[in-house]
């Protein structure tokens, strides 16, 4: 990600970690506005435009040591949704913005010896279409306004089952590995080998799962389980499913018979996603 040198009025106050509230800062010297989303250009962002993309926004500022120093969280319906305001002392920072529709805010993790600072989602809060921006922020002597474009960082895998959901089943569980539920705050790629779980009601077919790829070309292994209450009725393992950031993988075949030999998998896209890739998994 390319950095952007910014200037703002310096403050003599000691910097405090933000409380995560959505309220704006009337004395802000740095104002950040979401102006567009990758593959969904907005000529002039309005409250309604942003509402169409996500229902949660997280504006996060890290210092040069990878420590969070301020954060603003917003929910759909908050005043000023789509605009983050900060009062920052003179210095160099990393600005990170995440737009999503999970059930709550992700956790923010400081830098370690082995990993960059990161933003993490959980199985409990769920995984959704997610957009991201990250860049250097250098605070100097002049107040600024900044317009930001966010880019989609997830891959979507859609399962269209050819066979019927087991009659006794009431829920479907997708357990998958190979992607990540955590975002590297510098690169936007995954930074943890996550074990992701998404549950669906049996009526929600086609089933859609999201993950954050580790690189432009990655693969998932997915276990599809049909449940009646806590009782597992069927289990099918589907491996080597290709994924790529900003692309949709569409999987068609039998996913409830415990076999994958007749399943075919192709990557397709709609007009708001990226370039298509065709892929056929060889018979087993």
Description of the structure:
The chain has two domains: 30-152, Immunoglobulin-like, CATH 2.60.40; 155-268, Sandwich (Immunoglobulin-like), CATH 2.60.40. It is 2% helix and 44% strand. It has one helix at residues 47-51, and strands at residues 30-37, 56-62, 68-75, 83-86, 91-100, 107-109, 118-120, 131-139, 144-152, 155-161, 171-177, 182-184, 195-201, 207-211, 218-228, 231-243, 248-253, 264-268. The strands form four sheets. It has a seven-stranded mixed beta sheet, with no helix packed on it. The protein has a four-stranded mixed beta sheet with strand order 14-10-17-18, with no helix packed on it. The chain starts with 29 loop residues before the first strand and ends in a 16-residue tail after the last strand.
Radius of gyration: 21 Å
Strand order of the largest sheet: 3-2-5-8-9-1-4
Give the proportion of residues in helices. under 10%
* Range of strand content: 35-45%
**Average pLDDT over all residues:** 81
Give a quick precis of the structure.
This protein has one helix and 18 strands.
Task: Walk me through the topology.
Layout: E1 30-37, H1 47-51, E2 56-62, E3 68-75, E4 83-86, E5 91-100, E6 107-109, E7 118-120, E8 131-139, E9 144-152, E10 155-161, E11 171-177, E12 182-184, E13 195-201, E14 207-211, E15 218-228, E16 231-243, E17 248-253, E18 264-268
């Amino acid at each position: 990600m390319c950095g952007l040198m910014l200037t703002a009025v310096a403050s003599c106050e000691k910097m405090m970690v933000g409380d995560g509230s959505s309220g704006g800062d009337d004395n802000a010297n740095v104002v950040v506005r979401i102006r567009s989303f990758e593959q969904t250009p907005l000529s002039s962002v309005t409250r309604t435009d942003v509402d169409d993309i996500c229902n949660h926004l997280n504006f996060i500022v890290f210092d040069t040591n990878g420590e969070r120093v301020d954060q603003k969280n917003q929910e759909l319906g908050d005043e000023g949704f789509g605009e983050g305001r900060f009062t920052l002392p003179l210095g160099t920072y990393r600005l990170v913005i995440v737009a999503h529709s999970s059930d709550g805010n992700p956790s923010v993790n400081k830098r370690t010896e082995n990993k960059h600072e990161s933003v993490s989602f959980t199985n409990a809060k769920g995984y959704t279409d997610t957009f991201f921006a990250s860049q250097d922020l250098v605070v100097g002597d002049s107040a600024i306004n900044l317009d930001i474009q966010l880019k989609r960082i997830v891959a979507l895998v859609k399962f269209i089952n050819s066979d019927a959901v087991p009659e006794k089943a009431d829920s479907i569980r997708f357990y998958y590995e190979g992607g990540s539920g955590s975002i590297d705050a510098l690169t936007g790629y995954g930074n943890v080998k996550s074990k992701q779980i998404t549950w669906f009601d049996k009526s929600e077919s086609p089933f859609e799962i999201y993950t954050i790829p580790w690189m432009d070309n990655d693969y998932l292994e997915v276990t599809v389980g049909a449940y009646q209450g806590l009782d597992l009725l069927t289990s099918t393992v589907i491996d080597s499913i290709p994924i790529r950031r900003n692309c949709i993988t569409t999987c068609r075949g039998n996913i409830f018979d415990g076999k994958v030999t007749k399943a075919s998998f192709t990557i397709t896209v709609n007009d708001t996603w990226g370039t298509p890739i065709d892929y056929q998994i060889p018979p087993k």
